Amino acid sequence: MMPTYCLTVASTTSASSPEKNSNLDNVEKVGKYIGWSIERLEQRKTELEKYISESENSKQKLSKELDIANKLLESNPFNSEKAIAIGESNAEKTKKELNNIENDITKYKTELEEINKAIASLK
């Protein structure tokens, strides 16, 4: 599992000061990455891209395994209730794992978008 980085942002801006409000807008754009250097942001971006790639590869592999398992269950070559029960149980576990991977990919992509916004705000 990937580490989560979180920074607390304290705001002392006043609604009556336009220049401070523009700073607040910048804080909203970069969110939890305020104060991160561009180097640190780029490093986190690289990590996220790696996590996404690895997760998508795992997802593809599990999807293929699930397809094979489902075809095997449909053909029922063993003609055994026990074999069917084991196959169905394994298929359910694989579906849950796929769901977890899909959730991780979504989370990584969301964070990557936030990182890209933070990087853009520094350039």
Topology:
Blueprint: H1 18-30, H2 38-75, H3 81-122
TL;DR?
The protein is 76% helix and 0% strand. It contains three helices and no strands.
Q: Would you give an account of this structure?
A:
With 123 residues, this protein is mainly α. The protein contains three helices and no strands. Helix 2 packs antiparallel against helix 3 (81-122).
The percentage of residues in β strands lies in: under 5%
Integer average pLDDT? 78
Distance between the termini: 30 Å
N-to-C SSE string, H for helix and E for strand = HHH
Question: Any key phrases for this structure?
Answer:
single chain; 123 residues; mainly alpha; 3 helices; 76% helix; disordered N terminus
